[in-house]
Structure prediction request, 383 residues.
Amino acid sequence: MPKIYLDYASTTPVDPKVMEAMKTYFKKDFGNPSSIHSFGQKAIAAIDDARQKVASFLGCELDEVIFTGSATEANNLAIFGLIKKGDHIITTQIEHHAILEPCQKLEKEGVEVTYLPVDKDGLVKVSDVEKAIKLNTILVSIMYANNEIGTIQPIAEIGELLKARKNKIYFHTDAVQAANYLDCDVKKLGVDLLTLSGHKIYGPKGVGALFVKKGILLNPLIYGGGQEQGRRSGTENVPAIVGLGAAIEETQNPKIKINIIRIRQFRDKLIKTILKIVSDSKLNGSPIQRLPNNINVTIDGAEGEAMVIALDQKGIAVSTGSACSAKSLEPSHVLLALGLSHEEAHGSLRITLGRYTTQEEITKFLKVLPQVIQRLRQISGYK
Prediction:
């Protein structure tokens, strides 16, 4: 049975160009970047080249890019590196757990956290950000595009708001899902910190990056050899960093940019057709301010995990929400924040498209989905 992968928000396959760029650093040019001999010099040169590619993508300086072991680590560094007892953080109710859990931990240690609500489309109001600001507000962290419902937040507008204030408030955005599709120029966005991930942009797993605006002092999470300007100790994962750089560069390829138009057309067709052929279904998230590859629907009478398993048996991979929360039995905190009931949130399906999605795969999915829903509804007794 041919497999169909429609879970690109979870992870992406490594692009052939990225794989080719990484290969030599596994065996031939394997030196430790901290070594002063020629092997080490080749490794550090490769890291510098990758750093240049990321900096070019973000519109920032070379020394403002810090490589990490993951986007989760980068998010943690942005929060724990800045905040101390008595400070105030503003974030939203629909952030990734890599933001929410650090905030929850800090709350237990005497840090104030405001979790802003979102509207029914999953959008935060700039006015709500402004109202939440206190004298001790140090950080605002709001994700650029949501990993479950694809909602794109007004980051540049929030950046303008914070820039106009007399007291400095740092602004961080998790741009992990946005990097494939949206402008991540940090000056245009008005952010002080920004998180990227390798495996969401057709690069390798196990590597991330954090933009840190010049002048910001971050306390490190990891101590040791003083790599990455002392902000992230540990021998650099050269192949992965090279892969992240190559993947970032490939996002700017004109052919890849054109492909996004096709992905958006597929998304629109899927949304329109699913809502038409599957009764009692509705779209979650904004129909307009949305990533071009994201479809998230609630289908009454069918449990999300059951839909994922049934579709997988038909050779189609989708998800119910964030892959990082797949082991949890709790309904999606993102969907609950939109106002969905627990039952509705449990009946959600996330379909995310990517660079290699084909028309044939879309056609097959639309043929199989109604059959799966009909069978699950019969089992549940839904009418």
The chain has two domains: 4-12+257-380, 16-250. The longest helix spans residues 254-277. The two ends are 32 Å apart (CA to CA).
